[in-house]
């Protein structure tokens, strides 16, 4: 043991075996000893020698604790190598202790730990494993034990069967009998999982039909069958993770583990199919599918008639499908597949493939199906079909489809048996297959035959495309089904064309439209070697579908169906590389669809044009390249007309094109490659258009167009490489130099002339339309730059952004924040990030925010007289975004920003007890001061909230982990101190606004950690801010934080301490007049508080019930409903004598 003091581990041993030690103390003792053993500071031999007294004493409690300690230590030492002598001694000891029922738990833990050891660390041998099994079978009565010990026993059995099969094989009948005894009557879900796996492993141990398992197969299945179907009642808390599906799957594996169970399993499952419980039917069908595959065709042959009868009942008789709530049919009939039908079709597929000829003959010769098909002539009109008839049609179509998809031979038999009836019902024949079958179609057209024809076509195509023999297609092409289909191909196409022509907007024709369009899609997507649709017919299909897209957009269902068909055809063309079909598709569909982008047809909604273009474009890269090329040309041409001539119509249409470009097209290229080239081309093109226009004047729609252009520019920049971004940035800088606010290079940040120009009194009255566009596009480029992108003349760039910011241009603030977030610490040899920030602060931000003396070092602002200096709330907003960029990267200059904001909030001159923005305030300077301080309070929202416009990972921002939590921890004491010291009611109001922003945007886990400090301030926020309607959004955000604290276990302690105050504030909010959701949430919080310690909340019950009674008359129903729930919760803890 070396220099380790003996007393160290002895104390831990004594602590563990002591009955007075808590569970935590015992666990700590085990861990401490395990560490000594793992680090070789204590040998296992020394430990066992020291524990000998505890392992062999006649005191049952001490002996059981000692043996359990040794077992737990072995569990923790499973990866530590042990020699054979130690393993042999330990396994012998624990095997003997299996007979010591007073110390059984520790013996089980020790045996399991030794059995689970892996090769290379010291394992028990075959004879030792056999000895464990023999002792187990001889001494243990598993079902008489508690749940934990039963679970350990079953884990030992599982481990023996899984890892020591050779040792157990010789035990034969004794082993099987012992397992039957051990598992019989078990009810615990965790133990059942082990039992089902044990039965599966046992079948693997004795796979022979004449082995030991044969004698007990009936007994084992008698034990298992009582669990089918799995149904958990009253699950315990530790069984929450034990899913019913996992148990069901484990039982299914046990059922199918050996063919010896087949005589019992299949009759049981067939019987359960007649159950009135849908879940039992589903489980039975699922088990039948799996067991049928495992048992094999020979054993299942005798059940085929019974299985087909059961399947017919599940598919045809029982309600298996539900009508869709949508007006558009899902599959032509409007049914959603039920789980019963889904599982029944899976079983049918298994049976048809396993018993091809015999089972198929049952289906083809079935009288019910034949009678149903013969009844078509009685139900021609779709509107006359009952729901039951539609369900039967739906089921028959699926049955025949499954048969067709099973194999080429089964497809032949189905076609030979049923297809002639269908074409007769449709009045088709080979002779007139080359003419127009119906010059006009009426509502009495046989829908049943049409539906089944399309279903059979779809199944045939699925058989073809899923076959491994597609390469040798000529073999299948000679099958009879292919010859039959080819002979009627033209007639079918003509029927489908006529149905589409006769369709109208009424929903009663939707089923016909679905079948017709689906039929054309299938015929167009058959590989050419199977069904030869002529080139003329194929092109007619494409022309028909494309014409629907262009002209029939007012027929919603027809239009959607045609679009879906074209998408599928395009996918087929790209996948199977049929050159002739691809050429036709490109010349007809691609050309017409892509031309929709630049089409002047205003009748077709632009949203539908873009939907069609993008959905079809997604099917292939070449198509998408054509789409993006045409889209860029159209956007470019539109912008030229807008920028030069101010075309109002195009100004309204172009934002939609830009949104499609940025939200759909560019993300597609990001995911599929080629984004850099496409993005660079778009960005350069936009800047080129702007360069060519010296003047610009747009009306109201110009704002929407500018916003869409900025979004597209930012999205394009995210996809550009560093090199491409540098090209676009230089283009943007060149364009900025053409703006009217551009300062020459000698007017750089920090010079007197620059400072003079940036004084508020000398700024212009705002940006011109062209300057706003240039500044916005320039800012969009800067926002999305990568940190690695080189920025030339950074001082000039900051100058330009600062100038536009002070004119009220918010995107420039976003750009400044993005720059300070991404710039390297050392920008160049003579310029560092800190120097730039100091210059920016000292000469722009501080000069325009200062309401006191300026810091000479570029640091935070000191407060004095607010009437002595110029004010600019735009600079506050810009400073907030700069602060956000610094905060996200964790830069120390953030301190100066936050201190400045706090200085603005806590001016030492009380402006009086008026609320902010009093309309009757006469002094305009005071109003400007309050505006500035309001902006400082809102700055904390900017600092903490997530932004879609900039500073996010999509735009390559640097994001330090947990930055919000760190900032919250830094600002909390500063806010609390400022609030305590503040004597001005106005300053206090602004402080509460800022604090509310800080808390509401902080992750809840951080707020809960300081809940005791935060909660009183939150209550004051409610009290002060609820007086002004302008604070309604802040109040709701704080209320959400309060509800989070209330529902968190760690936060409830703070709630309980402040319960009276919290309840009073919530009562006040139940009558908040401005926002319904605040009243609703406040009542929900009061309801949740009824679950807290009664000693703290009981004194408030009368006030709560009085407030809730008033809320019962709230004008909003949702509030009244919450009030009813809350009243019931509080009434249950109140005295019954209370009367209202």
Automatic annotation (TrEMBL):
Protein location: Nucleus
InterPro entries (UniProt xref): ARM-like, ARM-type_fold, MMS19, MMS19_C, MMS19_N
Domain MMS19 N-terminal: 48-316
Alphabetically ordered keywords of this record: DNA damage, DNA repair, Nucleus, Repeat
GO annotation (BP), single: DNA repair
Listed GO CC annotations: cytosolic [4Fe-4S] assembly targeting complex; nucleus
Domain named MMS19 C-terminal: residues: 691-1089
Taxonomy, superkingdom: Eukaryota
Main location: nucleus
Protein's job: Key component of the cytosolic iron-sulfur protein assembly (CIA) complex, a multiprotein complex that mediates the incorporation of iron-sulfur cluster into apoproteins specifically involved in DNA metabolism and genomic integrity. In the CIA complex, MMS19 acts as an adapter between early-acting CIA components and a subset of cellular target iron-sulfur proteins.
Similarity annotation: Belongs to the MET18/MMS19 family.
Protein name (Swiss-Prot/TrEMBL): MMS19 nucleotide excision repair protein
Species whose genome carries this gene: Solanum pinnatisectum (tansyleaf nightshade)
